[in-house]
Amino acid sequence: MKKIIKILISIILIISLFNLSTPYSDFLLRRSITNQIAYLINKFETGLGKKLQERYPEGELFGNLIFALSLIKYSEKYEIPDINQIENAILITTSKEAKSNYTKDLPLEYGAFYTGWINFTLKKYIESEIFKRSTKKKTFINLYRHFSNKIIEVQKGSIQLLESYSNSIWPADNIVCIASLDAENQELKKQWLDKIRIKSKSDKKLINHYGNNPSEIRGSSQALITYFLANINKKQAKEYFDRYKPLFTKKLIGISFIKEYQGDNNSEDIDSGPIILGFGSVATIMNAKAMATLDIKGAKSTWNFLNFIGIPINLFGKKYYLFGKEPIYDIFLLWITVDLISK
Fold it and tell me: Which helix (H) or strand (E) holds 280?
C-alpha cells in the first residue's frame, strides 16, 4: 500500500512539475496550446456554442470569437492546419440566429458589444498573415467594411457613447468598437476615447464600469479596457495599467490577484464571475491577458496559477480544465496562453 501511495505521489509531483514548467518552455507551451485547440475544436463541432449560450447571455458569441482570436494569435508563431475553424467561428456569430440574442433597434444596430467584438475579430483576421490562405477574402473584407461603416455612421455629427442593450451603456464595449476601427479613423477614435473619459466621474482618472454609474470602477472592466487600449495605443495602455494596478492588484509569490471592487462589496454577477476573498476570477484572468499583451512581468506566473487550479488534464492529444465542466475557462485560458509564446 505504501508503495502505491509513493508511486501516486511521484506521478502527481511529475505532472505538477510539467505544468509549472509549461510557460517557460516553448515545447511544453506549444503542446499545451495544440492539445487545447484540438479539444475545443471537438467541443465546438459537437455544439459547445449553443451550450454556452444557454448558460451565459453572450456565451455563443464570446466563446466563438475568443477561440477565433486565439487561433489567429497562435498563427503568428506557428502554422495552423485548418483556417476553417477561424472562419466558421466568425460566420456563426453573424448568423440570423446569433443576432436574435441582441437588440436590433439601437443607434448602432445590435449594439456595441455585438458589433464591436465581431468587428475587432474581423480586423485581427484580415491583418494576419494567415488571411492570405483564405478562399473567402471578399466575404470577410465586406463584413469588416459593413460593421466598420455602421460604427462610423452612427458617430457622424456628434460623438456618443453607444448602447450594448436598450438603455445600457458599457464603456468597455465602446472601447472594443474603437479598437476595431482601422488607422484611417484615428481622429474619430481619439474623440471617442476622450468622450468616454469625460463621461467617467472616477476620481482615479479611470474609466467607469457601467454607463448609469459613472463613478464605479471595477477590476474586470479595468483589465478588459487595458487589453483593448493596448490594441489602440500600447504606450497609453501601459500608463492606464499603472494607474489601476495599485488600486486593484494584490501580488503573492509573483501571482497578480485582482479585486473586483474597491470597497467591501463582494457580490458576484455575470461580469465578475466567482469572487473569492474579494478577488474576481474574471478580473484576474483578464488582467493576465492584459499583462501578457503588454509584456509585463508576472503574466507567466499568474497563468501558471490559473493553469494549476484548473486541474489540467493533458493526455492523448487533448487538454482541458475542471474535468471538462467549465469550457469557458478553457477558452479564456487558451486566449492568455497564445500571448505567452516567445516573440
Answer: strand 279-280
Interval 71-89: pLDDT, tens: 999 999 998 878 999 999 9
Taking 80 as the threshold, does the pLDDT of residue 270 lie above it?
yes
DSSP 87: H
**CB–CB of 103/111 below 8 Å?**
yes
**How far is it, in rounded angstroms, from Cα 75 to Cα 72?**
5
| Rounded Cα distance, 21 and 124, in Å | 30
What are the angstrom distances between the C-alpha of 147 and each of 110, 144, 186, 227, 282?
A: 11, 5, 17, 21, 28
Nearest to 283 by CA among 295, 268, 273: 273
Specify the DSSP class assigned to residue 112. H
Q: In this structure, what are the phi and psi dihedrals at residue 249, rounded to the nearest 5 degrees?
A: -95, 135
Angstrom distance (rounded) from CA 190 to CA 231: 13
Which helix (H) or strand (E) is 304 found in, with range? helix 299-309
Quickly count helices (H) and strands (E) in the chain: 15, 8
- Look at residue 258 and give its three-state secondary structure: strand
Q: 134 is written with which cell numbers? A: 483564405
Residues 24-32: contacts with CB under 8 Å, at least 24 apart: 24/300, 26/341, 26/342, 29/337, 29/340, 29/341, 30/78, 30/341, 31/314, 32/307, 32/312, 32/314, 32/319, 32/337
**Any idea what the Cα angle at residue 249 is, between residues 247 and 254, rounded to 5°?**
155
3-59 tens-digit pLDDT: 666 555 555 555 556 566 777 788 899 999 999 999 999 999 999 999 999 999 899
pTM (whole model) above 0.90: yes
307: left (phi over 0), alpha (psi -120 to 50) or beta: alpha
